[in-house]
Amino acid sequence: MKQAIGVIDSGVGGLTVASELMRQLPKEQLIYLGDTLHCPYGSRPEEEIKRFTWNMVHFLMEKDIKLLVIACNTATAYTLNDLQQKLDIPVIGVIQPGARAAINATKNKRIGIIGTEATIRSSAYTKALHMINADISVISESCPLFVPMVEKGVLSGTEAFQTVNESLQSMKDCTDIDTLVLGCTHYPLIKDVIGEVMGEHVQLISSSEETARETSAILELQDLLNKDDTFLEHQFYTTGELNIFQKLTNNIFSHHLDCLSKIRMDKVSI
Amino acid sequence: MKQAIGVIDSGVGGLTVASELMRQLPKEQLIYLGDTLHCPYGSRPEEEIKRFTWNMVHFLMEKDIKLLVIACNTATAYTLNDLQQKLDIPVIGVIQPGARAAINATKNKRIGIIGTEATIRSSAYTKALHMINADISVISESCPLFVPMVEKGVLSGTEAFQTVNESLQSMKDCTDIDTLVLGCTHYPLIKDVIGEVMGEHVQLISSSEETARETSAILELQDLLNKDDTFLEHQFYTTGELNIFQKLTNNIFSHHLDCLSKIRMDKVSI
């Protein structure tokens, strides 16, 4: 199946998922749309999150994608079920793969979740974890300062450490979790700082890697893998300013990939 | 969906997959069938492997299972495509999850595969790896002595070390793999010995954990998870001697699980 995998995100955080998809599925073409104009979604009301997400979906469905990845925890929390019911292609969110990886990783069955206010308010992680195992203790905390900090490009150093340390104080001191889910696709970009704050005994789960692996599994099971060797250029679209998107894209991909030159990047209205 | 997950294996090796399924999906009921009478499959001709596997499938389909896991690499290599085409429930093998995990783990794109003679002869792992990434170098080696050793209960000590060391000599000395797939469900039971022989720089991939995780993902995506809290007893069937099966089951589950008392075990003819 030569059709592309569609990836939507509220901005640039989902590029961590795109990066993993490229690494684990190098023969697949991606079409990515980041709604940077409306980012962050995490502090918006439910109605807006749904409307903006559906706008992105309509844009990508016109490109005849074969599978949709919602690479944004907030959008997953509020639209996954609806999209799975209404679209006739497989739809994969980032919450369920992260929840499964956390269940796989925890030994003491105490799992922490950090995310945006909207993601934490939705209890989507707690529901996903308890649907599989009702014995898991879940401790959630929203970290509203992380996304603006990452979007500013502050990924390490004193400012990053202080912000993370203050936000995670109670998670660190008042719980005995052994696993922490980075429930927002921006957070893998400050994973080192979060790890430094939480300590070595807490395993950090990034949904990006897990989501890419599940995408690979679903493509194979449904016989949707690209069997052709002709490489098709990835396409990246943003609703916001192209230069800011480009800068953050460079930040993310320079660590993982050297195929940025193969990327087409456009600004669009949706 | 209260129906059970069916698991088939040529013998007891698949219990490592069953054990992981129980850990990662504690609300799901398993019905396991191990064809210990005809074990090992790994040195048998293709026709026999297919016939024995289909006999197991017929037995489990009568139990109205909702998903089938082929927890045997040899049976996966020779029957997965056929079963996926002919059964109207999802069918998951152990080769593809292992291949995906190896692609995720490798840094130098050099992956070793060890398995039975039949699994290695089928090139199923090489095909699965190259379908996703044609740039991967695959080095395969059959280890015909491992299954009989494990079935005898020799899982550690001098005899185990010497057998493993001799079998993996060329894999260890003549390749620069950074990832080794344990391409037989018996091998996780001697994972420590294999790790000691290969050294810390080689990551060992066990399909059991990966297969359970993918099963969890497929159940959720296809809305097949058990949402009921009533626990249903697992059922274990063997075509061979019950006492040998029981002994090896104790060996495997004592490390992972304490729910053996909840298991019903029967000898059957298929």
Report on this model:
By secondary structure, the first copy, chain A, is α/β, with parallel strands linked by helices. Chain A folds into 2 domains: 5-93 and 209-267, Rossmann fold (3-Layer(aba) Sandwich), CATH 3.40.50.1860; 96-207, Rossmann fold, CATH 3.40.50. In chain A, 47% of the residues lie in helices and 17% in strands. The first copy, chain A, is built from 12 helices and 10 strands. Chain A has helices spanning 15-24, 46-61, 73-86, 95-105, 117-122, 124-132, 146-151, 157-167, 169-173, 191-198, 207-221, 242-256, and strands spanning 5-9, 30-34, 67-70, 91-93, 110-115, 137-142, 179-182, 203-206, 234-238, 263-267. In chain A, the strands form 2 sheets. In chain A, strands 4-3-1-2-9-10 form a 6-stranded parallel β-sheet, sandwiched between helices. Chain A has a 4-stranded parallel β-sheet with strand order 6-5-7-8, sandwiched between helices. In chain A, α1 (15-24) links the parallel β1 (5-9) and β2. The two termini of chain A are 27 Å apart. Residues 255-262 of chain A have low confidence and may be disordered. The interface between A and B is medium-sized, with 30 and 30 residues.
Mean pLDDT of chain A: 89
**By helix and strand content of chain A, what is the structural category?**
alpha/beta
**Largest interface by Cβ-Cβ < 8 Å:** A-B, 30 and 30 residues
Low-confidence stretches of chain A: 255-262
Q: What is the total domain count of chain A?
A: 2
| Large-scale geometry of chain A | globular
What is the distance, rounded to the nearest whole angstrom, between the alpha carbons of the first and last residues of chain A?
A: 27 Å
State the name of the first-level CATH class of the largest domain in chain A: Alpha Beta
How would you spell out the order of helices and strands of chain A?
Answer: EHEHEHEHEHHEHHHEHEHEHE
Helix-residue proportion of chain A: 40-55%
Topology-level CATH name of the largest domain in chain A: Rossmann fold
Oligomerization:
homodimer
CATH architecture of the largest domain in chain A: 3-Layer(aba) Sandwich
Kindly provide the radius of gyration of chain A, computed on alpha-carbon positions and rounded to a whole number of angstroms: 18 Å
Strands of chain A, count: 10
Major β-sheet profile of chain A: 6 strands, parallel
Strand order of the largest sheet of chain A: 4-3-1-2-9-10
Strand content of chain A: 15-25%
DSSP summary: helix tally of chain A = 12
